Task: inverse folding
């Protein structure tokens, strides 16, 4: 349990939702979720006071700045080990009381499946969906490792944010 008065919890991934119960967060506390998928997972745990951002850390930060008060208690930011934007740090810069708690760690795949390699080589894949810069870097590394970069020339990489799309462009993805 957290020993300070809490104002809200920010969650940037559905992978972090389990920590709400582990930290014994009260069911009526304000929860700001990065998107609908994360909010749905929070609702399944019977949390009632949920606001949903627009699927990016920047939109979640804007939602927090709009909904939260600088004097109403601690804001917890539940995250994975690898993040794009440190919301707790950004809120602290704006004079909020905020704390980041790393509640999960991701482990990148070491290789692509044989099926994925075959489908890419045979031209059966037309799009790849990427949700984070880290995922894009891992995908690029695996594609390079399996000599698939040339096969990916005509495949669209669909990115969750402009920042990810910019990085994909730098990697010469379409």
Result:
């Amino acid at each position: 349990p957290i020993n300070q008065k809490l104002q809200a919890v920010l969650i940037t991934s559905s992978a972090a939702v389990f920590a709400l119960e582990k930290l014994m967060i009260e069911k009526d506390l304000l929860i700001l979720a990065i998107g609908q998928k994360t909010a749905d997972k929070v609702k399944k745990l019977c949390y009632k006071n949920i606001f949903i951002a627009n699927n990016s850390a920047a939109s979640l930060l804007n939602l927090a700045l709009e909904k939260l008060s600088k004097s109403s208690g601690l804001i917890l930011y539940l995250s994975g080990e690898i993040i794009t934007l440190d919301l707790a740090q950004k809120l602290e810069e704006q004079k909020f009381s905020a704390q980041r708690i790393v509640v999960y760690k991701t482990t990148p795949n070491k290789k692509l499946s044989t099926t994925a390699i075959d489908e890419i080589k045979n031209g059966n894949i037309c799009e790849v969906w990427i949700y984070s810069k880290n995922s894009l870097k891992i995908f690029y590394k695996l594609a390079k490792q399996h000599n698939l970069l040339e096969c990916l020339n005509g495949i669209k990489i669909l990115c969750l944010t402009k920042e990810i799309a910019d990085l994909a462009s730098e990697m010469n993805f379409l």
